[in-house]
Amino acid sequence: MKAETSVPVHEIIATRRSPRSFDETATISDDNLRGVLEAARWAASAFNGQPWRFFVGKRGDEVFGQILTSLGEFNQSWAKSASVLILVSGKTTKRDGSIHADFQYDCGLAVAQLVIEAHHRGLIAHQMTGFDKTIAQSELSISADLMPVVVIALGTQDVPEKLSGPLLERELAKRERLPLSEIVVKGLPA
User: Fold this and answer.
1) Is 1 a domain residue?
2) CA of 64: how far to CAs of 4, 5, 72, 163, in Å?
3) Average pLDDT score over residue span 46-75
4) What is the mean pLDDT of residues 72-78?
């Protein structure tokens, strides 16, 4: 389903969604996985600091299980079917040792490029902040200089009807965003 935009935008942006219905039999090729990570690697970052670090688990391996354990119960119920789970962490200090107050912004840019590249490759991606950072740090032995930011489920979309209740309602909901008039505080062209 294409987004109802106020002006035309790139097809990938207009059709991108964050579904929860993953095909639990599908896998992601190493080339496609490397491709989405490569897209993230080339994201812009302040002073080219590249603070993002990825913990990548394929369904059935130890890292996947560790990331899944950190998710809230609601997210575990559907994310377990994803082909890949990626936990994105960010370095909280700059190369010179000073505090990197904006590392999450840079990580967000990398995640955005990862998600767009995944969609371009025919995959789906769903980002989650519904996870326990303390559990993630413990399960994955994340070093103290890294802060967990987000978990991304990657895979192949399945039919919405495999979900039920609130999951199905969210899967079928219309894709909506606030209008530009509400988010552009000053300077919106007429």
Assistant:
1) no
2) 35, 36, 14, 21
3) 97
4) 96
Instruction: Tally the domains of the chain.
Output: 1
112: domain CATH number? Answer: 3.40.109.10
Give the C-alpha separation, 160 to 66, whole Å.
26
Q: Which domain holds residue 61?
A: 19-183
Distance CA 131, CA 167 (A): 17
Cα–chain center distance at 135: 19
**By C-alpha distance, which of 141, 178, 170 is closest to 18?**
170
Digit-coded pLDDT (tens) for 106-144: 999 999 999 999 999 999 999 999 999 999 999 999 999
Whole-number Å distance between alpha carbons of 149 and 75: 16
Give residue 75's pLDDT: 97
Query: What is the distance between the alpha carbons of residues 103 and 98, in angstroms, rounded to a whole number?
Result: 12
Name the pTM for this structure: 0.95
6 occurs within a structural domain: no
Identify whether 5 is part of a domain. no
C-alpha 33: how far from its chain's center? 13
Please report whether residue 42 resides in a domain: yes
Q: How many CA atoms lie within 13 A of 158 on its CB side?
A: 19
Whether 51 has a pLDDT exceeding 90, the answer reads yes
Which of 13, 136, 20, 3 is CA-nearest to residue 77? 20
Q: How far apart are CA 43 and CA 114, in angstroms?
A: 9
